[in-house]
């Protein structure tokens, strides 16, 4: 059996892949035997690269057909196209950034023995080093006329058909193949990297310090979520994977680091869908002497700066070609006000829970924990959430669903909290933080009561955090934003596409 001669070949069957693997392993052995005395073989420790494919394209991309340069380069890439014909063979080499160049291997330049070895040992998917003159072929394709070549890494398995779209499942399970085959996959990585750099720059420009908080914790807190549990052999105790860094970042505020942020990994033992992942990247930031208004301003700036970094404009273009405007001042609406408008009657923190239950039952809404605030939030999601497409801050939440948030300065029964919605999904949340240790203890006690009653998402009473608060925490605004969801807003992709290596069964 011979290796495919083009990346347009049909997808091989499992049996053909097994046969190809055997053939390629034999070639690997042959390369190792040939290099027993000289080193190198199928996996040399290094090759004498002098430049990159992208650099050659940028320098010589305007060559006319059949033009030469006299410039000899040494470069490497993965073979994604291969055609062997008589005295002249062709290969297309692809760099990690997706740039490509043609390698031309001719009898006149490399000699009979080298050409024969090329045809015998080189396959699609191999990493290849070539050295030779930069030219333009008769058809005007930028090329390297090869004088010397070396296998830089022998591929034992064949590449997928690069002209066939990989299924979403294949892309997620074998992201390395996705990165080889699909330009969008590479762009996703580049855009995320630019976004992270932009976030850090925006914070740095505003005097924020980046710190790190524990991922393994003796008590989970900072959010209402079901944690993952593990066990420490060294301490012979159960530990929780972090669900949020909030309580530790607030300790830093108490200690005087009053403009602080962290970009971290969080873990929540909950469902997975198009907007949720059990492991996810989170940004949290706290601003001493700020509140939920100032932290909303910061959040808008962070996202708009990220859009500029990714797209060069506040209008981003999603993967499907849709343009989405993140510019201007974003709407700020109240939860109770927007719910009242949607249902056609006034809903307030004083609305009897029986009326809320009746409305929920009529709409077929099931509320697992029948708190007044739970009914309000479930009803709001049912009637209002899907209508929010433009970036919108939804403000002033029920007090009994936000135990770490300061009571509203003028509206009884609500707290100074907002959620930021973009395209109908929640992207970020922000607060005027609760800094009164006495009230915070009361809220923790209520959470502990809910936990004892079976609410697996309720928080535990954290004495260490309360002790920190008792030393005095200044008025503070805080926010948390999912990085994966931010990428969804910037690219229009689902969460499994914005995470490079998402969890799969």
TrEMBL record:
Subcellular location: Cytoplasm
Cofactor section: Mg(2+)
Catalytic activity: tRNA(Lys) + L-lysine + ATP = L-lysyl-tRNA(Lys) + AMP + diphosphate
Main location: cytoplasm
Pfam families with a match to the protein in the record: tRNA-synt_2, tRNA_anti-codon
Class of enzymatic activity (EC top level): ligase
GO CC field: cytosol
Keyword Nucleotide-binding: yes
A GO term, aspect molecular function: lysine-tRNA ligase activity
EC number from the UniProt entry: 6.1.1.6
Annotated keywords: Aminoacyl-tRNA synthetase, ATP-binding, Cytoplasm, Ligase, Magnesium, Metal-binding, Nucleotide-binding, Protein biosynthesis
Leader peptide range in chain numbering: none
Annotated cofactor note: Binds 3 Mg(2+) ions per subunit.
UniProt-annotated binding residues for Mg(2+) 2: 426
Aminoacyl-transfer RNA synthetases class-II family profile domain segment(s): 192-502
PANTHER family (alphabetical): LYSINE--TRNA LIGASE, CHLOROPLASTIC_MITOCHONDRIAL, LYSYL-TRNA SYNTHETASE
Protein family according to the UniProt entry: Belongs to the class-II aminoacyl-tRNA synthetase family.
Subunit structure: Homodimer.
UniProt name for this protein: Lysine--tRNA ligase
Organism: Mycetocola miduiensis
């Amino acid at each position: 059996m011979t290796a495919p001669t083009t990346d347009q070949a049909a997808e091989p069957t499992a049996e053909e892949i097994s046969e190809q693997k055997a053939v390629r392993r034999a070639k690997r052995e042959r390369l190792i035997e040939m290099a027993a005395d000289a080193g190198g073989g199928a996996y040399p420790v290094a090759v004498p690269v002098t430049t990159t494919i992208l650099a050659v394209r940028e320098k010589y991309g305007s060559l006319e057909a059949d033009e030469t340069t006299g410039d000899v380069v040494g470069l490497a890439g993965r073979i994604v196209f291969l055609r062997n014909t008589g005295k002249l063979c062709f290969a297309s080499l692809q760099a990690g950034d997706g740039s490509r160049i043609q390698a031309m291997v001719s009898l006149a330049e490399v000699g009979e023995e080298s050409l024969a070895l090329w045809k015998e040992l080189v396959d699609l998917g191999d990493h290849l080093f070539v050295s030779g003159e930069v030219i333009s072929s008769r058809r005007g394709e930028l090329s390297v006329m090869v004088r010397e070549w070396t296998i830089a890494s022998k591929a034992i398995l064949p590449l997928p058909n690069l002209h066939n779209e990989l299924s979403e499942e294949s892309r997620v399970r074998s992201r390395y193949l996705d990165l080889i085959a699909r330009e969008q996959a590479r762009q996703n990585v580049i855009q995320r990297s630019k976004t992270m750099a932009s976030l850090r720059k925006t914070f740095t420009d505003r005097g924020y310090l980046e710190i790190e908080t524990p991922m393994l914790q003796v008590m989970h807190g900072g959010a209402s979520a079901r944690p993952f549990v593990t066990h420490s052999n060294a301490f012979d105790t159960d530990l929780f994977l972090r669900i949020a860094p909030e309580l530790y970042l607030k300790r830093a505020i108490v200690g005087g680091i009053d403009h602080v942020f962290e970009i971290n990994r969080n873990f929540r033992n909950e469902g997975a869908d198009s907007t949720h992942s059990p492991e996810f990247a989170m940004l949290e930031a706290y601003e001493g002497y700020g509140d939920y208004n100032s932290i909303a301003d910061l959040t808008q700036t962070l996202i708009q700066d990220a859009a500029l970094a990714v797209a060069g404009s506040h209008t981003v273009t999603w993967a499907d070609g849709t343009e989405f405007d993140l510019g201007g001042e974003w709407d700020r609406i109240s939860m109770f006000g927007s719910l009242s408008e949607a249902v056609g009657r006034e809903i307030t923190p004083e609305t009897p829970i029986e009326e809320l239950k009746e409305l929920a039952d009529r709409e077929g809404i099931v509320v697992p924990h029948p708190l007044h605030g739970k009914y309000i939030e479930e009803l709001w999601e049912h009637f209002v959430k899907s209508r929010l497409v433009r970036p919108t801050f939804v403000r002033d939440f029920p007090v009994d669903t936000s135990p770490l948030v300061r009571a509203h300065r003028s509206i009884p029964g609500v707290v100074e909290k907002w959620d930021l919605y973009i395209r109908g999904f929640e992207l970020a949340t922000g607060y005027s933080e609760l800094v009164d240790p006495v009230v915070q203890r009361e809220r923790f006690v209520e959470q502990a009561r809910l936990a004892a009653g079976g609410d697996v998402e309720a928080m535990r009473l954290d004495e260490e955090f309360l002790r920190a608060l008792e030393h005095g925490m200044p008025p503070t605004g805080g926010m948390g934003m999912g990085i994966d969801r931010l990428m969804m807003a910037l690219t229009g992709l689902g969460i499994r596409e914005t995470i490079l290596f998402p969890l799969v069964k």
